Amino acid sequence: MAAPTTWQFKEGVTPDAGSFVPAPKNSGELEQITGRPTTYWSDAIRRIRRNKLAVVGFWIIIALFVIAIFGPMVSPYSYEDQDLENTFQSPTLQHPFGTDQLGRDQMTRVMYGSRISLAVGIVCAALNFLIGVTYGGISAYFGGRVDDIMMRIVDILYGIPTLIIVILLTVLFKDKGVSPLVNVFIAIGLTYWLPMARIVRGEILSLKEREFALAAKTIGAPNNRILFKHLIPNAMGPIIVTVTLEVPSAIFTEAFLSYIGLGVSAPVASWGVLASDGTEAIRSFPYLVLFPALAICLTMFAFNFLGDGLRDALDPRLRQ
Amino acid sequence: METILKVEHLKKYFAINVGGPFARHMASLKAVDDVSFEVGRGETLGLVGETGCGKTTVGRTIVGLYAPTAGTITYCDENLCALSREAMRKVRSKLQMIFQDPYASLNPRMTVGNIIEEPMDIFNIGTMAERRERVQELLRTVGLNPEHTNRFPHEFSGGQRQRIGIARALAMNPEFIVADEPISALDVSIQAQIVNMLEDLQQNLGLTYLFIAHDLAMVKHISDRVLVAYLGKIVEVDESNDIYKHPLHPYTKALLSAVPIPDPRIEMQRQRIVLKGDLPSPVNPPSGCHFRTRCPIAQPICAEQEPELRDMGSGHMVSCHFVS
């Protein structure tokens, strides 16, 4: 058995009962907090940095934005300039992605297509915030009859496939001078805020029973203040996750609609249009479909990885 | 003593669905069932009872979180139930609440400074600088470091958070504070600090408390008078010293017999009254006297007739047929 540890006073210190003074009873400040404050967001950023895929996804999205904004500006070609002497060229230094059936530079067209895709993504995110969050928040906060009616409307809209809405809109706006891109925006606007409304409603339903919401009421806060200042900021985690997972699906919908000819049309280049044109010549010139398809894939992966990473970082309870 | 708050025949029923997910069959949960009491200015009224007896509902109805099903709440000669929303919002600043769970009652996304400042912000009181000044003053009042305004609630301990909650309640210079089990979520050592602070604040600021708790010893310490509630009803009211010495209602007797005595010799000889059975459901309370199903002295009359709250002299009120 080891010898019991003996405690000794430091050298030069003589034990003296008088040196022990009881702490004052009412010293006011009872505990000291030291250390840098960590907020919810700095914590989340720290967690997401550890997730390599999410970081890669984040940088791909940033790169995508840079290319979409500056790419077509610095490119020596325009997305619609035809060069009928140089059709169907294989990738070369002059045309890194080759040229299409009308001799247009495929790389410029893919870069231009990313503008449309990101525009769709931004519209989707904005509508999610403006309509989805507000709608879901109001529905849950007021509850009862209001909630019943508002959620039944969501259920009905949920039941209509996006495709049918777009086809109806295309028929409706045909020959009325509405650009097909606006059609796509309206279709996405009508359908893509629905999941957000449901998620926010669920969050607010549980948050509004928490004591801090009751406390806000007792200090006389009006309803809109409680909803927008107390409840929605506390639901921000799931909201951001939903947006990052909704945006790629909206981008994909646009590509899909353009692919089947319901979205934007020539000469405007969207990834869906490019892929559609490319498939026609897939046997002889497969690279024409390869690059737009790659762009779509990369974007989908980037957003989904970032979304998954954000979900883990912002809502650790969901982590398996 | 001037009466500051008068509650008359207050009822609060919650509608609940008892028919399952498909058949809608509503029943009412009688959380508070015909409760009347008065609170004098500067007094501390304790409200005790076991879990589910409607203590919290009474407190929340008084501060306007719930609309009463029936009855009136009169605060300084104003009937709170008849006020418009806007007028109610203004009166509310004089009626504040301290919450039970200091971890849930502070918005985790707001700094302590913003939390305490919010009531002043809502009612547009003072300039930014004045408000900031007031926040610092309030933090000092509740014994926290005024430099901590930019910190978030999760950086504080339970006791400190409860102090922040108290500072928020004090921001509008309230007269009446409903303290809904303000200490039950805290460590025993912290409980004493908070209770002492509440007493100091009461003396310095002339506050009136409705102190809701289930810790009988603490209620005795802080309260001037005590209400004992059982299943949505008040069974006994008395001065706190008196009620602990001479409880009259069988429920109060049983409650008090459960308080441990810190002397092992007396503790061993102590006779405990153990109540049989569980608290009946407030959806379907017993007929007549609500307590009769667990009462050791129940008689047939208890099932037929509901006992009234009778004055047994010098403000000692009891609702039992067999107390005289």
UniProtKB/TrEMBL annotation, chain A:
GO biological process annotation, one example: transmembrane transport
TM stretches of this protein: 53-74, 116-142, 154-173, 179-200, 257-275, 287-306
Taxonomic placement: Bacteria, Pseudomonadati, Caldisericota/Cryosericota group, Candidatus Cryosericota, Candidatus Cryosericia
Main location, first listed in the record: membrane
Keywords carried by this UniProt record: Cell membrane, Membrane, Transmembrane, Transmembrane helix, Transport
Family in the record: Belongs to the binding-protein-dependent transport system permease family.
Organism domain of life: Bacteria
Protein's UniProt name: ABC transporter permease
Short name of any one Pfam family annotated for the protein: BPD_transp_1
InterPro entries reported for this sequence: BP-dependent_transpt_permease, MetI-like, MetI-like_sf, OppC_N
Protein's cellular compartments: Cell membrane
GO cellular component: plasma membrane
Membrane topology: Multi-pass membrane protein
All residue ranges annotated as the ABC transmembrane type-1 domain in the record: 114-307
UniProtKB/TrEMBL annotation, chain B:
GO MF annotation, one: ATP hydrolysis activity
Superkingdom of source: Bacteria
Family annotation (Pfam families): ABC_tran, oligo_HPY
Keywords: ATP-binding, Nucleotide-binding, Transport
Family membership noted in the UniProt record: Belongs to the ABC transporter superfamily.
SMART domains: AAA
Protein name per Swiss-Prot or TrEMBL: Dipeptide ABC transporter ATP-binding protein
Any one GO biological process: transmembrane transport
NCBIfam families, per database record: oligo_HPY, PRK11308.1
Residue span, ABC transporter domain: 5-256
InterPro entries in UniProt: AAA+_ATPase, ABC_transp_ATP-bind, ABC_transporter-like_ATP-bd, ABC_transporter-like_CS, Oligopep_ABC_C, P-loop_NTPase
